[in-house]
Amino acid sequence: MIKIAITRPGVVSREVERIKYLLANDVDFVHLRKPDVGVEYCVELLEQLTSSERSRVVVHDHYSLYEEFALRGVHLNRNIRELPAHYSGSRTRSCHSFEEVLRYRDECDYLFLSPLFDSISKHGYRSAFTHEELLEASRRGIIDKRVIALGGVSPERFAYLKELSFGGVAMVGALWGEE
Asked: pTM of the prediction?
């Protein structure tokens, strides 16, 4: 299973050291999601990573950083709605329904499906899917190796998610704690 760390939206103490640790210890990719800080903070953070580490970072909020730092890719969202025709990096997207997964699956390398469980990092952000709905989506092939579980994901849930055919997991709260 692919393991993805998603950064907290604001400034985090010793963030560079934590990102380096995660990349060196069982996390495949880091999604740099920083809607609450300016591009300058992201530049400073990325400058402290090696080129090898940066090649495993997907940016959420500042497309220009993808080319400037040779990052892995770009996450499509409300801040980055589409990519230039010449773009060749990894494409990812968040989905909140099985319909969205079916709509965007052919356009992306992988998709986040959330919230799978009650969120660890966002109070009041509740699971959107029942166990039965997840089983049916798995049976129908909607959940597959390109769908990444997000929302309340922690290591003790990895085996369950693998049984449902998720291709990976993405974590915020389990890695960084609550807001």
From this structure: 0.93
